[in-house]
Amino acid sequence: xxxxxxxxxxxxxxxxxxxxxxxxxxxxxxxxxxxxxxxxxxxxxxxxxxxxxxxxxxxxxxxxxxxxxxxxxxxxxxxxxxxxxxxxxxxxxxxxxxxxxxxxxxxxxxxxxxxxxxxxxxxxxxxxxxxxxxxxxxxxxxxxxxxxxxxxxxxxxxxxxxxxxxxxxxxxxxxxxxxxxxxxxxxxxxxxxxxxxxxxxxxxxxxxxxxxxxxxxxxxxxxxxxxxxxxxxxxxxxxxxxxxxxxxxxxxxxxxxxxx
Length: 260
Prior knowledge:
This protein is of the alpha/beta class. 51% of the residues lie in helices and 16% in strands.
């Protein structure tokens, strides 16, 4: 799965993905069936158990859509378990230095490229060749995306992108906006900073630059700046807004009928 994602980035494709907070297999199938190029499964925020993640990853795999899991806890064992469960890669929150990025990449790779321990995992089930070769290929295929969410990370962005094994970076506008002392993501200070970061990322062709894109109208501008992984907003926002619009329409119809 990660091979497909990394190959498309290397080919210059622009991918459109979705944040999935509700880790239910049916919702994963719905999002994949709607046309997602990749999934951003959130295991940093909210209360989710490992079984939910495992089942969601299986559903994504059956739909042939790469699933990346965002984790908040920097744990070597948690990284290994997510990859063992079938994640195409990891999104690492709050990465501020190249040294952090190097360590996180090493957790995603088997020896000799990294320190990931060997074990019987889902990847073993449908592989009939050399297990050593499978693991070495997995070390090359895994996607490692660093989320830069503070000004220290902004200053170190070029060094983070230069780390061997870093697939790309994601920009965390929410935390950056708070650090800049502004109350919204589309504030001119935030947009200027995001453009500066995108300019740095353009110096690393073939790597991913992931940004939230809240409206299709914003997409062309982000793509022009170098974004090649567009992320639509969270499923909970979309579902709430859909129902809000529907209820408002029905309530208006009810109000109009009473006036007759």
